[in-house]
Amino acid sequence: MPEIFINYRTSDEGTTATLIERELSRRFGTDRVFRASKSIPIGRPFPQELLTAVRRSSVLVAVIGPRWADAQTSDGRRALDDPEDWTRREIAEAFETGALVVPVLVGRMTRLDRHDLPPEIAELADCQYRRFDIRDAESNLKRLGDDLAEAVPQLAEAEQRTAKEQRAREAHTETGSVDGSLVQARDYRHDQSGGIGNVGGDVGTFINNASGPIHTGSGTQDITTRTGGVEFHGNGNNYVERGTVNNDFRGRGDHEGRR
Question: Half-sphere exposure of residue 190, counting CA atoms within 13 Å on the CB side?
Fold first, then answer.
């Protein structure tokens, strides 16, 4: 169910209305922000959809630019003077249902004069407004969102849920499904060239630039050098010496190596 209804005149500031809707959708969730061309499903009767959405919304944001009041109908009359003008009808419905009505004046648009408005929406001129200037769009959009979250408690709650869901999606995208400990490459740096090293924490022992056979399992390892005559028995023993090395990996338990 929408909480915010975006009201605008297509011939006036349709692009600005889209920018506002997208930012508020990002903060509060797309299902909580209604804009006709986005929110009405294909094939549905738009008059009923519009009126239902207005009646269910807690806030109506009226996007008002320099052509808003002077827009004309197809027969040359001022659109605002037409009782069937949808911009006018939506605002009137919002006042009727007790919704919070917030005019957003775009660019150099000046304050409305109630004497220039039809009586049923004349109080729009008295509503505290916010401004939108494309040169300062980011801060203007942030202020509008902050004001709405403060004025409507359910929007503040929706913003918290939306932010939590977004963080969860981002975490899933970055890590995917991981079993065991996850280590990012930037978390550890070990300046060692060759040999066996150790990194604290869950990473443990690593082998860098290894050449030749390496045993890293838990079974018995028997290593006998032919030149030095050195022999090791037991689990996990490692011996490195110049010369030829024979590795014999068997099951657990001590055994005699070949000499």
Answer: 17
